[in-house]
Amino acid sequence: MARHHITTTVNGDIREVLVETTQSLLDVLRNELLLTGTKEGCGTGDCGACSVMLDGRLVCSCLVLGVEADGKEIDTIEGMAQGEELHPLQRNFLEHAALQCGICTPGFLIAARALLEKNPSPTETEVRFWLAGNLCRCTGYDKIVRAVMATAKELRETTHA
Amino acid sequence: MARVVLTGEARRFTGDVDQLEIDAKNVMQLFRQLGQKFPELGAVLEDGFAVAIDGEIYEDSLLQPIKPDSEVVLIPKISGG
Amino acid sequence: MEDIRYEAPATVAAAVKLLAGAKGTAKVLAGGTDLLVQMRSDIVVPSLIVDIKKIADTGTIKKEKGGWRIGASVPCAVLGEQAALVRDWPGVVEAAELIGSTQVQGRATLAGNLCNASPAADSVPALIAAGATVAIAGPKGKRTAKAEEIAVGPGRTSLQKGEFVVSVFLPPRPKRASDAYLRFIPRTEMDIAVVGCGIALVLDKKGLIEDARVSLGAVAPTPLLVKEAAKAIVGTSLDAQALEALAAAASAACRPIDDKRGTKEFRIKVAGVLARRAAETAYERARAK
Amino acid sequence: MPDDVKLTREFQVVGHRKVRPDGVDKVTGRAKYGADLILPGMLYGKVLRSPHAHAIIKKIDVSKALKLPGVKAIVTRDDFPDQPKSKPPYGPRIADLWDTTRVIMAREKALFEGHPVAAVAATSESIAKQALKLIKVDYQVLPHVIDPIEAMKPDAPILHEDQFTLGVEPAPTKPSNVFRVMKAAKGDTAIGFGEADVVVEREFKTQAVHQGYIEPHACVANASEDGSVDVWMSTQGHFVARNQLAALLGMSVGKIRFISSEIGGGFGGKIPMYGEPLAVRLSQKAHRPVKMVMSRDEVFRATGPTAGATIRIKIGARKDGRITAAEAELFYQAGAFKGAEIAAAIGCMYSQYDLENVSIVGYDIVSNRPRIAAYRAPGVPMAAFGVESVLNEIADKLGIDTVDLRLKNAAKQGTVNVQGLRYGPIGFIEMLERVKEHPHYKAPLGKNQGRGFATGFWMHAGGLSCASINVQDDGTVTLIEGNPDIGGSRASMCAMAAEELGIPYEKVTTLIADTSSLGFTFLTAGSRTTYATGMAVVEATRNAIKVCCERAAAIWGVTAEQVKWEQGFAKPASANVGDFAPLSLSELAKKAPMMGGPIAGHAEINATGQGPAIGAHLVDVEVDPETGFVKPLRFTVFQDVGRAISPDYVEGQMQGGAVQGIGWALNEEYIYNDKGQLVNAGFLDYRIPVASDVPMIDTVMIEEPNPNHPYGVRGVGETPIVPPQAAVANAVENAIGRRLNELPLSPPKILKALSERPVARAAE
Questions:
Q1: pLDDT tens, A65-107?
Q2: Helices (H) and strands (E) in chain A, counts
Q3: Residue C147 and residue C127 in contact, taking contact as beta carbons nearer than 8 Å
Q4: Which chain A residue's Cα is nearest to D299?
Q5: Does ipTM exceed 0.85?
Q6: Secondary structure class of D140 (helix, strand, coil)
């Protein structure tokens, strides 16, 4: 099986890796770069657990070939906290108990951050539709939506202060 | 003598007997005596049944005391998800 | 074992050469949201993947002769970020924004949605209603085709060996023109359309419909352009009678199947309902302009 | 538990909203789930599965696959010893090993599409995948049967030639797909129906639905050269898995160690083992660690959904709403092997009501589908869908408010259910009163909107649990327990231990033990963890406190009885004992090494006193009359939770269960083609609710402390999935005036119903 040498920037670090043609970016992140924070729930783009940012755009890493990541910038859950300091979304997910089993949480956090960067004042409906590609089977979404709304409010208040 | 109530599944092994009095100080003695009266039931009691003693359910509790005036009901074990 | 070759050419000509010279199955990779799923489940086992994202211009949206030229690798999520495009073609953009999730829209493309040739593709009825054309490159040079000419059956296209779609073109809009796309799914998101309907309208100064195009998805082996449905509303102000005639014509055009997503009976009935509702939305939008 | 005085005092930790201890790892991607372990030299395992629903496996040829470079081991049925059948009736803990060994790897026959036939371990996933294609399996395809009602017919293909229906007289002589018939009765329903003014009899149908946990099954097995085995597994019960693996492979329990990974959802579906025995055998053969991760497709095709069912309900009532008789016939599909949860259905379906005459018959039916697995209150939601729908209809027919009808028949202290169980205090009436007082109940409804109500009964479990607590030198505390934490249970364990000790929550760390480090602990299932393991934690903590008091007594030169433990300090029990400055936990811990050794406590218990867990759901929906689309608008869950140790996570259970129930009611179903193959084995077409499908889920926690638990805990996890199906169906009926008795209430069904005549109502 032929392998491709790719160079990609993951959470700010330049990484070089050999990938098989059929390996998805998700496989490369998890199995080659050992960044297992990004999860596989379906492998077909239906659950959002593998959400990452690819050159600043929210994507399912299971629907990207690893070889396509050559020369790209990727942001994963492992890069979300700044050292000791959690991202406000991470903190609010904890404070609002927005996770039960937690397997969907990295995907939700990446997707929610992308939303708030694009739309700092989303309505509940906008939050729900933006996050419709992230499946959660435990929470019924209630506390997740509340955590995202609370973060949006907090961020707006900090910016205005 | 404790009053033992047999319903549903337990009745499969006891024919028409739906109630009987048994002198047992705990569940182990109860199962032993039931097994003597109904050997087929006796073979499956420990694995298949819980008991409710005066409305409290005990599963896998052979040493649970039974009072002389207690009502004991055999209930098939169920498991959750 | 059989190796899969991956190439990311920088020019249209190089891509055509690769595709034309391929032995076995050659697949074009733009967003990859269909291709990767098909490869994973062995529905498609390509011998060559040609990633067209490095070809200049496939990644851009440009105003051209009053219309819009959308490159074949432009992700759907980008369309909604172009305010002027949304103003001209709100229906096409809303259809593109219904494909999969936000994540999927970060990759999926209009050209890919067309070339996957699913009868239920969301953006295709909107493109057909819009009168969109596609620019195709191939061994014999460039050609243009209508959006409705691409799919010829479920998963099958009219593209010849070596050909690929380079861009999609949305024509210029006159005044008092707009479009809308609606689909029915059992959930609110993340499903394949059980029925989809795209409608584009142009109104005259009095508010009567001057021109209409109606397209239905998921009710036949390919998305349909339903001329009878358009005829039912042209010349009207979309009054109740016109809407009824539109619904009836839309339902009459359906040739659906029963499957895991819906019954024939349901699809036929809902096609009429959606046609009516999409027409009302498109009409309101056109009047507001 | 003897010491229940604490039920009345104000808690410092218990009942407060605390951040869970495992939370930071889970929001930063650090937490390790089933598929996240990577070991040196690790191989990747993949499973070859039968494409046929029913076929004799004549021959399996792995020779070509073995020659593929990178393939290190292959296992088939020949690598697993056959097992004896166990004797009926089967309790929940003894899944028949004859069945189980056939679930993990087909032997004589493939009994469902997706049935494992062989497994490969190779140096990469792609090589393993390639190797599967090189395995040649010679099948003789047999006729199959999917629907359980079809499977009962005399000419249906028989799955197990040696299965003769149990529970019928005389014992049958022909094999059958019906494994057993189970009955329960109370009073005389014929007399009861004779007294009824209204009798409603309806047939209901529900489809198989999957638990839908987002994390696919995953494990890593590592067989050592000394014959021992370590297994890392995403599971709801690693102790149970260990014992089962030992039996399946003929190994001694002591040679096997299971480590539970973080678990990405289970809902009952991660009780069984699937890939683990295969990974262990592959690891033994390859002398390397082997990872096995299922794809989503495999999860749907080959792991347990819950039973689909056909249910006949007949209920009679007098004009005043009093029920005079209730009957039910339950036809449950078990999948390819017996075990449909009819016992639970029989025990719970009518049990929140005080009924004189009841008769229930249940059928456990095999067909060519994956063996079912438990799914949250297993067996009960389908039956409750029927019962609560019929009660709704009776209320309508009699012109009685639907909650009042339940009030008229509510079980209370002293009520005896169909199994003969006599209830202690049971707060059903109080809950119904709370529903009536709630603003949701009387809120106005708009056009095309409807409101539905339903209740549900479940028995939460007890069982074996162990806990061990170590007080460290600096006064921090390490708590060790044996239940995989699926929904925040570590937080509750920390809270209970901290409350007992009177120290801050943050000072307690809870770890989940591997199976060699703690005594047997039963599953994280049956709503039992906070109840049963919580009990063990409290007992272990109290044992450590006893040691603390003994140490303080030694320091003060008094007896241990003269020392009391209060808010983190040993204090003289009374003024008579003497004037001693209180000793804190950290002071005692610091001295401990010089006073006989570290301070610790442990408990190994069988938690009994399992009890009813009742809930009620109120839902408003809007139905699009032109498309049949149902949109849930408002949802309120009422539940008696005993006492909420972690209120956030109790609410989370109620909300999550309700939304799973909405999915079950509206969209979820297993769909098969005529070849017996599943056609919607993915999240695209197996439609679980997405965020935009549902409203906020309001919760009303009713806290009537459970006298059987030191903190009053009642199991809460399962009850919330019992009422929503009927509640949603009743709401749809209320909105459109037509009753649908088949789940899911998909738009095509609703649109079809809308073309039919509306039902007549006495009330109008």
A1: 999 999 999 999 999 999 999 999 999 999 999 999 999 999 9
A2: 5, 5
A3: yes
A4: A42
A5: yes
A6: strand
Q: Which of C155, C170, C185 is the last residue of a domain?
A: C170
Task: Say yes or no: C287 contacts chain A, CB-CB below 8 A.
Answer: no
Contacting chains of A (3 CB pairs or more, <8 Å) are: C, D
- Touching subunits of D (3+ CB pairs, under 8 Å) are A, B, C
Q: Kindly report the average pLDDT of chain C as a whole number.
A: 97
Domain that holds residue C26: 5-51
Instruction: Check contact A-D (3+ Cβ pairs < 8 Å).
Output: yes
Are the Cβ atoms of A143 and D652 closer than 8 angstroms?
yes
- Interface contact C260-D751, CB threshold 8 A: no
Q: What is the pLDDT of residue B13?
A: 86
**Alpha carbons C223 and C261: distance in angstroms, whole number:** 16
The residue whose two tokens read 């009374």 is D574
Q: Do A128 and D659 make contact, defined as CB atoms within 8 angstroms?
A: no
Contacts of D682 in chain A (CB under 8 A): 42, 44, 46
Strand locations in C65-194, DSSP E?
67-71, 133-138, 141-146, 151-153, 156-157, 164-170, 177-184
The pLDDT score that the predictor gives to residue A160 is: 66
Q: Which residue stretches of chain D have pLDDT < 70?
A: 1-9, 88-94, 759-764
Q: Which residue has the tokens 């904890």?
A: A94
Q: Report, in angstroms and rounded to the nearest whole number, the Rg of chain A calculated over CA atoms.
A: 16
Topology, domain A3-76? Ubiquitin-like (UB roll) (3.10.20)
Instruction: Answer for the pair D621, D735: CB distance below 8 angstroms, yes or no.
Output: yes
Place of tokens 């142009």: C202
- Residues B59, D606: C-beta atoms closer than 8 Å: yes
Which of A31, A44, A104 is closest, CB to CB, to D214?
Answer: A104
Q: What is the pTM of this model?
A: 0.97
pLDDT at C2: 60
CATH number, domain D5-31+462-607, options 3.40.50.1170, 3.30.365.10, 3.30.70.3270, 3.40.120.10: 3.30.365.10
Q: Is C223 helix (H, G, I), strand (E, B) or coil?
A: coil
Report DSSP state, residue C10: S
In terms of residues, how long is chain B?
81
Interface probe for B, chosen from D608, D653, D706 (most Cβ of B below 10 Å), is D608
Provide the pLDDT for residue D576. 93
What pLDDT is stored for residue D3 in this prediction?
A: 43
Res C101 pLDDT > 60: yes
Total CB pairs under 8 A between chain C and D:
56
Q: Return the DSSP state at D742.
A: B
Of the candidates A1, A48, A67, the beta carbon closest to that of C1 is on A1
- Give me the CATH number covering residue B52: 3.10.20.30
pLDDT band at C1 (very low <50, low <70, confident <90, very high): very low
Interface check for C240 against chain D (CB to CB < 8 A): the answer is no
Of residues C187, C192, C266, nearest to D748 (C-beta): C266
Of D683, D687, D752, the CB nearest to C186: D687
Q: What is the pLDDT of residue D763?
A: 43
pLDDT band at B14 (very low <50, low <70, confident <90, very high): confident
Q: Are D343 and B59 inside 8 Å of each other by CB? A: no
List the CATH number of the domain containing C189. 3.30.390.50
Q: For D34-142+216-263+270-302, which CATH class? A: alpha beta
The answer, yes or no, to whether C and D have at least 3 beta-carbon pairs within 8 Å is yes
- Residues of chain A scoring pLDDT < 50: none
Residue C262 confidence (pLDDT) above 80: yes
The rounded distance, in Å, linking the Cα atoms of C152 and C159 is 10
Do D458 and D613 meet the contact criterion of CB atoms below 8 Å apart? yes
Q: What is the pLDDT of residue B8?
A: 82
Name the pairing type of β-strands B49-53 and D477-481.
Answer: unpaired
